[in-house]
Structure formats: C-alpha cells, structure tokens
C-alpha cells in the first residue's frame, strides 16, 4: 500500500487515552521494519481503548468500566477480559490503567452477581435484542448462553491484575461474593451427571420457525469435569464437557488460589485448589483420545462416557491456545501432536484457500479463516518461519482496512465478517508486542 493513513479516531473522539499506551505503541512501531505491519499494529493495538471503553466512577466511588465488543453494544465477560489483557504489564506504573482494569473487574463481578450463567451484559438494567430467548432473561442481560470460559476469563483477569499490580482494592466483599457464586455454579454443573434436571439452566432460542435445541439435556458422566452449553464462539456444544474451557478454568482456579490466600479467604482458596486438581485429573482421564494419524491428542469435547468430538475452533479458549493459557508448555509432546491435528485438514475447521490457510469456526460457516486463530498460532509457535508466515497472512488479508476481522473468506479476503471486532484487533496487537519483547529480530 502506498499511503498508510491512520485509521484511529481523532484524539478528541477516543474513548480512553493514555500516555503509557501511546509510548508503548511508538516504541514497538519503531522496531518494525515493514511499514504496513507497523501501520496495522498502530491501528489495532489501541482499538479497544479508542473505541469500546466507557470508564467512569460509580456512585459508590469505585471505578466502573463497561467494554463493548465492537459492533455489538454489549459487554461479554470473555471479550472484555481479553480486550484489556495487554494493558496489564503497563498498569503497575500507571494509575489510570489500574483504574481502568479495576473497573472491568468490578463490572464483571457485578454482572456475575446478576446472573452467573449469562455471557454478555448491558451497561444499564434494560432488556434487549435476545429478550425472547426461552431462559431466565433478567434486565441487564444481553445474552444468557452458559459458557464456562466466561467465568474462567473473570478469574484469570482478577489474578493477573493482582499479580501485575499488587493492588487488592477490587477484591472486596462484592468480588468475593461473585467468586463464591462462580464456585457454587461450578459445583452444580460438575454434579449434573446423567440427570440434566439437576441443573437450573435451560436455554432455547426461536429464530423464525426454528427452535434451537437444548444441549443441557445431553447426559454426561460424573467425572470431575464441568459441563456447559456453549462454546466461546457462542455456538452450542456437541458434547457438554468442553475441553479447552475446562483446561482454562483449571489454570485460572490454580492461580486464583494464591490471591484468595492473600485475602485470607481460606475456604475459597481451598476449594479453588481442590477444583483445579480435580478438573486437571479428569481431563487426563477423559479428554485424551488416540488419533490414527496424530497419536494421543486432546479432544475438543467429551461426555465422560468415552465419546469424543475431534475438532478445534478459532475462538479462545481453543486447543491451539493451551500453552497461551498456561495449561501446558509449547513443547509439550501431547500438545504438539494436538497442534499438528488442529493445523491440518483432519481438523474439520481448518481451511485452505487461494489466499490463505488457517483455523476457522462453524460460527461463520465453511471456507472462512479467523485472524484470531492466526495470531494464536503465532503466539504459541516456537518456529520463526511459522511465525513469519502467520504475520504475512495477517498482513495480506485485512482487505485494506487496517484492522483484523472476525473472519475472512480463504479465497477472497475482501469478503469478511465484522469490520469492528475489538478482540481480534487486541490479540493481533498483543502478538506484535510479544514478538517485540521475545523475538524482535522477526520484526526487524
């Protein structure tokens, strides 16, 4: 491209500005030799702060940060935690970023106290687009899809904030009640077994003449895993034990133990430790399968009875993202075998086309690749050539927009979904910052 004009909003129209973030953008950009790649980074990394933040002080004096996902005016627990994640290393020395992040944690805790089964919320107690879903739709809930990763992201962000800043201000009585509500829900969904009526959760959606099925009716074994009804793509699971989500929450619970102990929440700390161990053991027992080509790999979903669903999805948590989430090392042998499966056509959602190859999602249909998966492939790779190939694909498939999209057509990147999807932009920005820190020679 001959003219690379910034795609950021004018400074006066940005939702949240911060000198520490701007300094990081300048420093990283200076280390990128490719002008178009630097331009993409400069557009994408601050996109969450520029366009999706509503940060204020609540009536009780606590910071409150509402983070929309982009072109949908609602706050997902998952997306919002991921969108602000790259700000964590900067927050120790920046009070404004600490307030922003604390506000996200406060808002997430309040949302969980409203309904721990919901995945997305409004800023105000209104009823919105999905109010006709056949489930308990309270004012303030945008969507009530029970996704285990939503709660895992809340726990993960909480621990990471404390680890990065040492600040315990957000972890007050309300936060502790939210954590207790999470643990209570996990206990219920861990013990449903072959009687789905033990769970209070039910969900149906009617679109036209089509009534969505209820995955909550699928029977599972009592094996220590946590069942859920939807994937991080917001698509319904096929089998209720979603392996990447269980892996993610096992790590989040293990890490949270240290914060809870610091807060002298001894009962919660003990439960977090026990649950982390229980889920990890259950994954080893029930989520591993032998593939005829790749050998022993992780399944994407299971039911605890020996049935497995083999695939991977672009949304995080995914099998591809397990080292990124801290579940295993990037050179773990089983992970490498799983990774080989995921990045091959043996994975039904790995797509090859005239313009690119990569992991997609049934959420956007056949033939689509997700930039998020390309960023995650690079973030979890230990091979310079593979990382460079991912960067090249990301650079050549943004269709001239300067931003990452939800997905693009593998044969024609100009056919894409969601022009404003802040999570995808953030993850790409995080990739570039990580490479600048760990593998600067790739950017030079």
Keywords:
three-stranded antiparallel β-sheet, 15 helices, 2 domains, 444 residues, globular, Glycosyltransferase, 42% helix, 17 strands, alpha+beta
| Overall CATH class of the largest domain | Mainly Alpha
Report the count of strand segments: 17
Structure annotation, total helices: 15
Going across the biggest sheet, name each strand in turn: 3-4-5
Describe it.
There is one protein chain. The protein has 444 residues and is of the alpha+beta class. It has 2 domains: 1-18 and 28-56 and 349-444, no CATH class; 62-347, Glycosyltransferase. Helix content is 42%, strand content 11%. The chain contains 15 helices and 17 strands. It has helices spanning 19-30, 35-44, 47-51, 77-84, 88-91, 95-114, 148-165, 173-190, 243-262, 266-286, 333-342, 371-379, 384-395, 422-438, 440-443; strands at 53-57, 63-67, 75-76, 120-121, 141-143, 206-207, 210-211, 241-242, 288-291, 295-298, 301-302, 308-309, 350-352, 357-359, 368-369, 407-409, 416-417. A 3-stranded antiparallel sheet has the order 3-4-5. A hairpin with a 5-residue loop joins strand 1 (53-57) and strand 2 (63-67). The longest helix has 21 residues, at 266-286. It is globular. 50% of the residues are buried. The mean pLDDT is 96.
């Amino acid at each position: 491209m001959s003219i690379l004009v910034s795609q950021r909003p004018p400074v006066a129209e940005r939702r949240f500005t911060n000198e520490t973030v701007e300094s990081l953008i300048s420093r990283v950009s200076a280390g990128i030799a490719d002008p178009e790649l630097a331009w993409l980074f400069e557009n994408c990394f601050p996109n969450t702060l520029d366009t999706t933040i509503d940060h204020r002080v609540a009536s009780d004096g606590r910071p409150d940060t509402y983070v929309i996902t982009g072109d949908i005016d609602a706050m997902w627990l998952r997306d919002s935690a991921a969108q602000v994640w790259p700000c964590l290393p900067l927050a120790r020395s920046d009070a404004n970023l600490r307030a922003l992040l604390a506000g996200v944690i406060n808002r997430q805790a309040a949302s969980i106290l409203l309904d721990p089964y919901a995945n997305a919320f409004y800023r105000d107690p209104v009823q919105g687009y999905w109010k006709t879903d056949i489930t308990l739709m309270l004012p303030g809930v945008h969507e009530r899809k029970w996704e285990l990763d939503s709660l895992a992201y809340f726990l993960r962000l909480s621990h990471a904030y404390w680890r990065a800043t040492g600040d315990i201000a957000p972890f007050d009585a309300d936060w502790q009640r939210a954590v207790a509500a999470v643990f209570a829900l996990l206990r219920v969904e861990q013990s449903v077994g072959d009687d789905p009526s033990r769970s209070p959760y039910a969900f149906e959606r009617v679109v036209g003449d089509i009534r969505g099925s209820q995955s909550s009716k699928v029977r599972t074994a009592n094996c220590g895993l946590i069942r859920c009804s939807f994937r991080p793509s917001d698509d319904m699971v096929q089998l209720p034990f979603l392996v990447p989500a269980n892996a993610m929450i096992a790590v989040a619970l293990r890490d949270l133990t240290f914060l809870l102990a610091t807060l002298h929440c001894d009962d919660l700390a003990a439960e977090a430790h026990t649950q982390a161990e229980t889920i990890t053991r259950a994954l080893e027992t029930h989520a591993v399968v032998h593939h005829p080509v790749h050998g022993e790999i992780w399944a994407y979903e299971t039911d605890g009875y020996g049935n497995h669903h083999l695939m991977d999805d672009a949304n995080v948590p995914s099998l591809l993202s397990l080292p990124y989430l801290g579940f295993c090392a990037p050179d773990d042998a089983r992970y490498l075998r799983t990774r080989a499966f995921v990045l091959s056509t043996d994975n039904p959602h790995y797509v090859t086309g005239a313009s690119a190859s990569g992991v997609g999602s049934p959420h956007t249909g056949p033939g689509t690749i997700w930039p998020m998966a390309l960023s995650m492939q690079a973030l979890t790779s230990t091979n310079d050539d593979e990382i460079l190939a991912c960067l090249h694909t990301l650079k050549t498939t943004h269709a001239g927009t300067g931003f990452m999209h939800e997905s693009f057509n593998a044969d024609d990147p100009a056919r894409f979904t969601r022009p404003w999807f802040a999570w995808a932009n953030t993850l790409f920005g995080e990739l570039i910052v990580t490479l600048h820190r760990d593998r600067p020679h790739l950017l030079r």
